[in-house]
């Protein structure tokens, strides 16, 4: 072998060595990212199981929300399985696996955005969105059923038993749930005198009940079967409770969806780079 041939062989080996190092480095990164993606898929599965076993809120069944909750839970199980399969088959079927997993992840992200009330993604027809809740309580027929359900749960009776020994000031600083605050007591703007949690005395001339913003003051009654169940504040309180639960679920879907989308995109790029090099 001549000196020129040895020199050429040495230069070729030196040129290939950095390339080989880059390939090995990408393989290591891809392996680490695969583990992270698989862990995220397991977390999605855990969230689905938690969702399936999570207790329904009071009166949710009237709106058929438990069915939606079960449907989302089952959907998350499929997302977790598809994501795990895409990770395991990333080397053999990178392109089909990538597009197969992107579709349910995008649906998952879109659903999450709708649940938190993202602009133009929520609808009065799409269940559990803020607009949908407001539309449901706006109809008196729906509200009559919800109102009866709230009364049957004994929420206001429970509030009375927990605040028997409280004075007016102590009760005013007591933390109440949205339903307790909206349905079991008159709005603070009514300026009524406190007797107990569900019994209040109207102060003559305190507010003008003919004005729209004080309409709940005229609606309030000390009758334990009426209280403020017909008030707008009670409807708003029920909506706030429902929105809080489903908004938190929406945030979870957005967070996990974004993480998995980013992870699968990076993993796809690394696998394709590895294939072509």
Question: What does the secondary structure layout of this molecule look like, with pairings?
Answer:
Layout: H1 3-53, H2 65-88, H3 94-115, H4 130-138, H5 140-152, H6 155-162, H7 168-172, H8 178-183, E1 193-196, E2 199-201, H9 215-219, H10 232-276
Antiparallel strand pairs: 1-2
Membrane topology: Multi-pass membrane protein
Subcellular location: Membrane
Protein name: TETRASPANIN-8-RELATED
Describe this structure in words.
There is one protein chain. The chain has 10 helices and 2 strands. Helix 1 packs antiparallel against helix 2, helix 2 packs antiparallel against helix 3 and helix 3 packs antiparallel against helix 10 (232-276). It is elongated and about 85 Å long. The protein has a two-stranded antiparallel sheet with strand order 1-2. Strand 1 and strand 2 form a beta hairpin. The longest helix has 51 residues, at 3-53. It has helices at 3-53, 65-88, 94-115, 130-138, 140-152, 155-162, 168-172, 178-183, 215-219, 232-276, and strands at residues 193-196, 199-201. Residues 3-16 have low confidence and may be disordered. By secondary structure, it is an all-alpha fold. It is a multi-pass membrane protein. It comes from Salix purpurea.
């Amino acid at each position: 072998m001549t000196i020129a041939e040895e020199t050429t062989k040495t230069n070729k080996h030196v040129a290939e060595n950095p390339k080989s190092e880059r390939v090995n480095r990408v393989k290591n990164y891809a392996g680490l990212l695969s583990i992270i993606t698989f862990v995220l898929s397991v977390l999605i599965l855990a969230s689905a199981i938690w969702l399936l076993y999570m207790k329904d809120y009071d009166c949710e069944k009237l709106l058929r929300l438990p069915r939606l909750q079960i449907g989302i839970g089952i959907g998350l199980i499929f997302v977790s399985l598809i994501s795990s399969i895409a990770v395991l088959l990333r080397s053999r079927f990178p392109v089909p696996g990538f597009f197969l997993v992107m579709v349910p992840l995008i649906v998952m992200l879109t659903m999450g955005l709708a649940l938190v009330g993202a602009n133009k993604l929520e609808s009065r027809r799409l269940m559990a969105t803020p607009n949908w809740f407001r539309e449901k309580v706006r109809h008196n027929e729906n509200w009559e059923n919800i109102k009866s359900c709230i009364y049957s749960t004994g929420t206001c009776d429970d509030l009375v038993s927990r605040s028997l020994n409280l004075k007016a000031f102590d009760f005013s600083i007591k933390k109440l749930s949205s339903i307790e605050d909206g349905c079991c007591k008159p709005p603070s703007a009514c300026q009524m005198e406190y007797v107990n949690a569900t019994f209040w005395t109207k102060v003559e001339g305190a507010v003008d009940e003919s004005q729209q913003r004080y309409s709940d003051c005229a609606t309030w009654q000390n009758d334990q079967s009426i209280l403020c169940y017909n008030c707008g504040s009670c409807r708003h309180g029920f909506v706030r409770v429902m929105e809080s639960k489903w908004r938190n679920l929406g945030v979870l879907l957005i967070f996990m969806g974004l993480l998995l989308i980013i992870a699968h995109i990076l993993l796809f790029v690394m696998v394709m780079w590895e294939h072509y090099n």
